[in-house]
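[Meeting: bench + compute handoff]

Bench side (C.D.) handed over the final construct sequence. Compute side (W.E.) agreed to return the predicted structure before the next meeting so the bench team could plan truncations. Sequence as handed over:
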Amino acid sequence: TVGRFETRPRINQGRSRMPNRCQSGNIAADQNRAAGQASTLKPNNYPHPCSFLSKVPCWEREGAVGKGEPGPGARRRLVAQSTLAFGGAFAIFHRRSMKIGLIADTHNDLPPQAEERFIGVDRILHAGDVCDPRLIAQLEAIAPVTVVAGNNDFHPSWRETEVIDLAGVRFLIQHIVSPHRPTPTFAVRIHKIRPRVVVFGHTHCPFSEVIDGVHYLNPGSAGQSRSGIPRSVCLIHLDQGDLRTEFFTF
């Protein structure tokens, strides 16, 4: 029997306007018309989204042979190239809609129901107690995985805490967390990192509550049921600052 329930707290009502990525193309067309030339452009050395601080040409007129002067056969450096490159960086690193899978406490067992629920997600966050590292390889066949070490994990590359920004929302992942009675160390960590969502595990019990502006989420245990609590995973739907969660039990 598969169960499903969802919560829908609103994290952020604000929306950001993206820079106009068409601006540089319009400027180039205007320059061509002013020079009495056809407005056929081709991309040349299209910048990496992080290259908006460097001076590289974004566009080159077809058949360019001259240097230094605008006009027929001349290479043109557009004033708006930084705007174009910044727009690309904004689109890639500030994507506003994502679906994220949350899983914890697999304890050597990744049930097929969990894999099925994660089909189509953009990222998987594992909150520890994986035990068998090969389970992470199985999850990575579905989507990129961010994993932390639980009290039963001894993988040398897994850390106690991970922080990741997804669709403009900062996530902190840690296996053992007490939302209502945080340790002094964890309270300082929350103050410094200022996450909007904390993903944790360890209790084998699903949890979803906003405390002091931070949404604490425990997907429950995917590998072991405890005290009659069924196994479960969670999906997070992020859309323009709105956060909606779905818990699936099996």
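W.E. noted at the follow-up: The first strand starts at residue 3 and ends at 7. C.D. will use this when planning the next construct.
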